[in-house]
Every structure is written in structure tokens, then in C-alpha cells.
Amino acid sequence: MTSTLLLAETGKSVLLLEKAAAMGGSLLRFRHDGVPFDTGFHFTGGFGEHGLLTKMLEMLGIRRAIKPVFLSKDCAQRIVFEHSGAAYDFPSGLAALRGRFHGYFPAEPRAIDRYFDKLTEVYESSAELIFQDRERSPAAALCPEDDITLMSVLDGLTTNSELKALLSIFCMCYGTRPEEVSFATHSRVCYSLFESLARVEHGGDAFIRAFRDRFEELDVEVRCNTHIARCGEISGKTVRTVHLNTGEEVAFGSAVLTMHPREILRMLPRESLRPAFVHRVEGFEESAGFFTIFATLDLPEDHDDSTITSLLPSTDLNALLTPGSGRDSSLVIVRGRESVRGRIVHTLTAFEPSFPEETARWADSMTGNRPAEYQVFKAGRAARIVERIYRACPEYQGRLRLLDSATTLTYRDWLNSPTGAAYGIKQKTHQVNLVGRLPLANLFVAGQSAILPGVVGAMMSAFVVCRGLLGVSSYQQPACN
Predict the structure, then answer these.
(1) Are residue 265 and residue 327 in the same domain, yes or no?
(2) Among residues 99, 202, 303, 339, which is most buried (max CB within 10 A)?
(3) Low pLDDT (below 50) residues in the chain
(4) Range of 318's domain?
């Protein structure tokens, strides 16, 4: 959607193809008994005064249409270690968080300061990539910390396992183990989350409506239930046409592909690709997915509890993000308030990391047509999650109403994702993701698996890729947004 708007605002004629029944992907909400729930978008960073998300929305002219609801400045997130009962509250803002860590771990001042200093340095060296006044590729923003894992940095700072787990907790927001992800990627994702955490009024639907309204103003054509089945005419290294699943052949000048890398490989003719390129893409590993429950809470309308609570059964985040580790997983609990038919409804969404191996026996089934044993599996895991919530939040006992649950298979079918991974492919050290121009000269790649995961990462990739496609050195901020 970001790529479409950036191109359309320069006068390009743009056709947006969406494989699903409605555009928006994991931003789409669903409703159960009239209550709206977000599926893939729950909270974000980047909404600070000078935050990346704020800047990008302003440049797209849709900032005023998207209203952040900031979480508590004093306790935006609470981390609870279930094995010890220890609880840690994260305030918003790097300075406040650094001070809180000094209070929690008075024997570790040097480790804490070095971590936050290095995280800030890495972020600031690369955050302006999309706004700078000279054209650079994403690779130009790489730094030495792109070759160093998060785990190796933490191991070099401290031996305190709880401190290391807390400093790497946001790896749950990109689904890659600390021993695999680079410290630079971790820094780029986490800096804005440490600065401030926010939900959005009307959730992911707010983003979709804002983009849709701008598309209508700019006469952008959007076709849902439509995707590229295969490439058509190819002249040299340029694709002239593509065949759609509707049977139509469409001619175009350039295309930005924001699908899963393996889907890109599927649609491209192998004779146009080098074996090394194919091998590289086929070697990409999937990030973690989620098992999610959706519920309501019977609480007074004026009750306000926006803190995100994360439950950790151990301090070993590598094990918690490893398929088949045999351990309980982490659990993230997100609460919200929604207006439903004139009254306030309190919602609760809780999700555990999950992997395709857990539902592999039902992989050939589709949503709405799953066998009974699958339903038993879902009900059992959902019940266990509810019990964990009651142990952490006993005040919810008897007040929680479970409405629905979702597995990686649910997300696979909902998002047209190969495995239902929450963040596409892993962001791994030494891995070169697909971003920018493909071997076929007029095809470009953006999306959450390109530069960084999540809303901010997906939008950022579109700005980087479209700047090169449009041949501009920088973007002009609109006079009115």
C-alpha cells in the first residue's frame, strides 16, 4: 500500500493486486460477536514526535487519519519470569528505561550503559536511510554490528541471564532467536519500541482506511482476489506482461512485489535466474508464528489497563523460539478497549510463539474444513493459555470470555503465507534478503521480509525501493497531511 501511494502521488498509473478478498494483509481486523480484533497488528513504536512512523505517515499525507493511543509512560510493558515470580516494568523513553534498569540491576551499570549506547548509535546511523538527501542502497547503511549476533553482544556484556532476557525481549517482535539475529537488526527494530509503545485507534483498519481514501483521491485501481499466476512476455531482462489468476494478461512498465520471497521465486521463470539466486531464496528460513487467543473481559467501562504483559517460563529466549524445544513458550498479553454498539468492550489478545511442525499433520486442510482432532488441539492449547493468564492476572478469573483462537494454519490461509509465519522470513546475521531490483530489471522487491519486519519495516522498505524506482534523491514532505 505504501509503494502504491508513493508511486501514485508522482502521477504514475498504478494497479494494486491483492491476493486476498480485501487489501491490508495482516493489518486486517476480524469481528466476533461484533467485537473487532486485530490479527497481525497489535502495537508499534515509531509514533514519537520525530519517530520513523510519524515521518513516513506525514510524507504520505495520512498522518492525521491514524491516531496513536500511547501506552502508560511509566509501565508500557511488564515482563514476568514465571519460574521466579520476578516482574520488571518498562517505562517509555530510552532515558527512563535506562534509569529503571540501573535500579533493577545496580551491579550492572556498565553493561546497561554500553548496551543502550551501542543500540542508539546503530539506530541513529541507519534510521535516516529513507530521508537523506542522496541516493543510497539499503546495503550502504550496514555497519559492523550487522555481522555480530545479539546474543554475542549480550554475552560480552553480562552473565546475568535475567538482564540478557530483558534486553532481548523484543526479539518476540521479529520472531528470530538472539543467537541468529544481528545486533544491528535488533537495534533498528527495538529503538522505537523502547522510545514509546502505542496501539492505534481502530487498529489496523485505520491504516487501511487511510490508504484507501488516498487511493480514491488519486484514482488508483485496486483488484482483490487477484494475483500474478506467472510471467508473460520477457524481452531481454525486462518483463513486459504478466498473466493473472483471472486469465487476463496485463502489460506494465515496472512492478513492486511485496509478497513472500518464495512466492516471488515461484512466479519468475527459472531460466531467467542464476542458480545461486534460486539457492539463496530457497535457503531462507521462516520466522516464528503464533498461536493466538481472542477474548473479552467483563470489566467496568472506565477500567484502563493498557500495559502489555509478557510471561516468560525461563530466561532462555533461544529455547523459547526453537521448534520442538519441549519447553513452555513465552506468552504476550495485549489488552484494548473497543466501542461496540455504543458501549465499551474490553478485549484481550494473547499469543505464544508457534511453529508449522506443531500443526503439520493437518497441513493439507483449509480453514473451515479442519478435522475434529485439530479442533481438540486448539481447544486444549487455548485452555492452557487461559490458565496461564489467570495465574498472572487472578483478577480476570471468571471475567474472561474466550471467543476464538488461531494457529499458524489459520494465519497461513488468512494471509496467503507459505507457513503462517508472523514475520515472513527470519532476519538472520549474514543473510542477504530480497530488497530492491531483482535480476529481471523492472521488478523490485519490498515488504516486511525485505529490510525489517512489522509495519515500520514494511513501509520503510517501500520508501527505499520506490526512491530508486522514481529516481529521486529524497522525498518532499506534503504541505498538508
Answers:
(1) no
(2) 202
(3) 133-135, 479-481
(4) 288-422
